[in-house]
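Recall the central idea of this unit: under ordinary conditions, the amino acid sequence of a chain determines the structure it adopts. In this exercise we apply that idea directly, starting from the sequence alone.
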Amino acid sequence: MSRETGPTGHEPVSDTGWHVPVLLAPILERARNVERVVDATLGHGGHAAGFVAQGARVLGIDRDPDAIVTARTRLGDDRVTYLQASYASDVAFRAVNAFRPEFILLDLGVSSRQLDQADRGFTFRPGAPLDMRMGPDVPTAADWLARVDEPELTAALRDFADERHAARMAREILRRRTNAPFLISDDLVNAIRAVLGSQSGPADFARVFQGLRIAVNDELGGLGRALPVFREALPAGGTLAVISYHSGEDRLVKGAFRAWQQGCTCPPRLPQCICGRTSLGSAEPRKAIIPLAAEVARNPRARSAKLRFFRVHHAG
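Accordingly, the structure predicted from this sequence is:
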């Protein structure tokens, strides 16, 4: 599922007419000879199609009902089971455990299909609704902006949008909403311009829209809940693969993988371990895999992608 944090660029299309997913080759190489795969962010089924072509059975999960319909049209029902739910929900956790996967993929962020549909509200194109929902299980961005308080909005702009003027922007948004609700993209763009000035442009809008999208969908909270559950669902030798597009996502994934990899933390002078800590596996390779220049040239939306693998050694 090709993902990206901004609304620019065009995803490449294969000879079959379907979009080409990000970092497909290294993912399929790692999943070779695997029989049971969870694609926890199914989208329009790009990665799942590769898993099926290699002979795997797939549990495809997506919180977006439109994505489930599209993927089913593409993949059929022979080797794929579908679940419309957030990957971080209890129903998804139960389904993943029952499926007993050997490989789990998380392709984070928003899909190209969602970005390209103006009525989904992920874009700052003029007149687009402030929706930003990845599924029907969360409030719209308009509803979120109507109720959010200043500290929460400031934190979202600072932590998710990397906005240096987060406090000023939060105050400006709250000031403006007392006069009129935020309903369309223009309302938010005008607030951004009021703080950053007339020189602000698409890169600034993309950052702020991304930050609000992450907050509306609780993306980092869901990721933090899901990572340990997915690791525990894998057998020894199983692999968890995560593609991230935002620095906050990648820090969370990298930190989790590092913590799971760490073994005994006792001082070397102790004759035997007393902490009881055992390494649960290893990040392989240690550094994130990024798209090659040729892939970025074909698909600018892949430019910020980072792929990390964790291979489970022991259940934990």
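Residues 1-17 have pLDDT under 50 and may be disordered.
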